[in-house]
């Protein structure tokens, strides 16, 4: 009796994840095409919808635990959904920050984003997608791949920071647009970190391995 309810909960989580992922994709598309209207929709329309998804999932998770007192795998799955819901809510917040920064960028920039920022968008979107697929499929290998991709996103963020720091000194007029780009990159980096959290949780859930501390040592 409980299994169909847990599967429905997981399906709702996927819907939420796809919605949040689309917020990031739309920011990238708007930044590339110069469509500020789409950015306004992300900020004014999508953020409240993302918050509503979060509330529904948390209420459903809490209700399942309270009413059915799940054990073993069912309980672990529900608690995992609860954790991922929180991560997705934070990802949605960062997506809104990206849309706001993209709008600032478009207000003064004569050209669209550079290749490094576009690649950072793509890698981050793939991480969000991979983290959710890893959870649904209980795929530790995919969770590991998500964690490893975080290094690529970190390297891109560092490269963008180094390049724009020099550019702002050389051309002070570029500072507003460069700061907007840095804000976008910083928020993409945080989304990648949150996706990594999900990947680490999947590895722990499926294999009982804790890799968080090991990864922190590698990044120091």
What do you see in this structure?
The protein is an all-alpha fold and 220 residues long. It has a single domain, classed as Methane Monooxygenase Hydroxylase, Chain G, domain 1 (Up-down Bundle). Helix content is 90%, strand content 0%. The chain contains seven helices and no strands. The relative contact order is 0.14. The mean pLDDT is 89.
Q: What is the CA-CA span between the terminal residues?
A: 47 Å
CATH class: Mainly Alpha
Instruction: Point out poorly predicted stretches.
Output: none
Q: Compute the number of strand runs.
A: 0
Please compute the radius of gyration using only Cα atoms.
Answer: 19 Å
Largest sheet data: none
Helical content band: over 70%
> Which homologous superfamily in CATH is the superfamily?
Phosphate transport system protein phou homolog 2, domain 2
- Listing every helix as H and every strand as E from the N terminus to the C terminus, the arrangement reads HHHHHHH
CATH overall fold name: Methane Monooxygenase Hydroxylase, Chain G, domain 1
- Number of structural domains: 1
Tell me which CATH architecture applies here.
Up-down Bundle
On the 0 to 100 scale, the average pLDDT is 89
């Amino acid at each position: 009796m409980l299994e169909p309810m847990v599967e429905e909960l997981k399906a709702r989580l996927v819907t939420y994840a796809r919605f949040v992922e689309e917020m990031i994709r739309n920011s990238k598309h708007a930044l590339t095409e110069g469509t500020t209207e789409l950015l306004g929709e992300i900020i004014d329309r999508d953020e409240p919808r993302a918050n509503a998804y979060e509330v529904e999932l948390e209420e459903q998770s809490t209700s399942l635990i309270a009413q059915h007192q799940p054990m073993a795998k069912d309980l672990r799955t529900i608690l995992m959904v609860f954790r991922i819901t929180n991560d997705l809510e934070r990802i949605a917040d960062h997506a809104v920050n990206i849309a706001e920064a993209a709008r600032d960028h478009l207000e003064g920039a004569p050209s669209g984003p550079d290749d490094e920022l576009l690649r950072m968008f793509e890698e981050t979107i793939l991480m969000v997608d991979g983290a959710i697929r890893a959870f649904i499929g209980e795929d530790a290998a995919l969770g590991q791949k998500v964690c490893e991709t975080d290094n690529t996103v970190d390297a891109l963020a560092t490269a963008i920071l180094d390049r724009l720091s020099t550019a702002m000194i050389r051309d002070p007029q570029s500072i507003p647009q460069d700061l907007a780009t840095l804000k976008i990159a910083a928020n993409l980096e945080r989304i990648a970190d949150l996706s990594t959290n999900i990947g680490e949780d999947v590895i722990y859930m499926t294999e009982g391995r804790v890799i968080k501390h090991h990864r922190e040592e590698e990044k120091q």
